[in-house]
Design goal:
This protein is an all-alpha fold and 499 residues long. Helix 12 packs antiparallel against helix 15.
Amino acid sequence: MDTSLTPQDSPATAPAAPPPAGDRRPGFGTLLAVDLWERFSFFGMAAILVLYLTASETRGGMGMAPQTATAIFAAYMSLSFMAGLPGGWLADRVLGARRAVLLGGALITCGHAVLALPVTGSLYAGLLLVVAGTGLVKPAMAAMVAGVSGDGKGRREAAFSLFYMCIQVSALVAPVVTGLLAERVAWHLGFAAAALGMTAGLIQFALGLRRYGDVGARPPHPVPRSEAATMLRRAAWVTGAVGALVVVPAACGLLPLPAVLAVLGLTTVTLPFWYLRSLRRTHARGTVHKRRLAGFTVLMAASAAFWMIFAQSGSVLSLFAERHTDRDVLGFEVPASWFQSVHPLFVLLVAPLFARLWLRAPRVDVPVKFSGALITAGVSFLVMAMAAQLAEHGPVGPQWLLLVYLLYSCGEVALAPAGLALAATVAPSGSTSRLLAVNGLFGAVGVVVGGQLFRLTTVLSPTVYFLLLGGFVLSVGTTIALATPRLRRLLALPAEPGT
């Protein structure tokens, strides 16, 4: 393999045929629409799951305690992140990205359909089907976006910015639709709406198959039949062992749920580092792939600090909005939960601006974007520390939270698409979907750590809490900024003029 390739020429991400003139190849818009529908099903279900679990049985819910319902939702999210790694492997080595999207989408649809059935005992089966389908769809879909987007001059990162923007459209619309149906009509009708959304996405994807050319048609590095049989047997043994030792006892109430969540959390934190270390060991010392993977690991570990801040939105910031924010607007008290819609709205507003910026300023490369996003996120919590200090004397205006959401929305638009594009760029041949899944796993690391740090609010004042987290993330961003020249060398990125 020619180790002199630039990131844009990496064989793992090069398109199967030269792209036509323009920023993106045919099929890009169809993929955006399909992902919008897939995320509609995800956010729609996520918006009503905990509410359904905690609703009384007389209202058609499960009647669970809030702590139990929240724990189940956390387990579902952790498993969805972890499922991306085997799902990415299947897309890279067995199915190809196209078949992975079709099979995963079918599993998600079936999962939502099972949840839509008013049958006792369907909850866990439906959630597991959705988890399995999500693990197949997300890395494969991102790999196809990398394949159909053009190369060079920031096109891939601009494409991922638009791709990421579609998620925010779903984040705005899906909870309104499924929430209205679930809370005002019937809970299971909300799950049915999520199933219909995924079905619409599958139909649109199938109708647009000819527009993708050869992208995703075959696995880039197919596994030999003998090796596939061996791995299938091992997977069957592992699945059986996990089911016998964890899933069945937990479902029967024989294994405490906190213990299951602790195992899932520890696995989530260690899995991406273990996988990247094993991937680096397969390459000879000093090769371009080994160096790129080392730089990728550093940046992904730093990104976990950003997602740690991001994870506070639904907990610390929501409580601050409820208890310490003046929400009166012309005599109407704005619900605290409405502040959760501010973030996707800001992302939708700034994502097109950032997409244009990356096309016009290709020298603002990945390490710069990561450091800028981390510094912005750190500053957002320093702003929150100021707001918390003022809130000790009475409720503060909503502009504080709006500014915080704007800051880390800008950071997310800079970091998240750049992370996806970087994963697609540095992936060794035949492992693109898996590297994209690893990128998501580091997001899970930050979410898990952020959820645990939330417990500090019982012993620390809000001002001190925000100062500590904001200062830490700010220091991580500053470190990445100082290490940018070395990271560019590791990733084989061009240096800025004059450096």
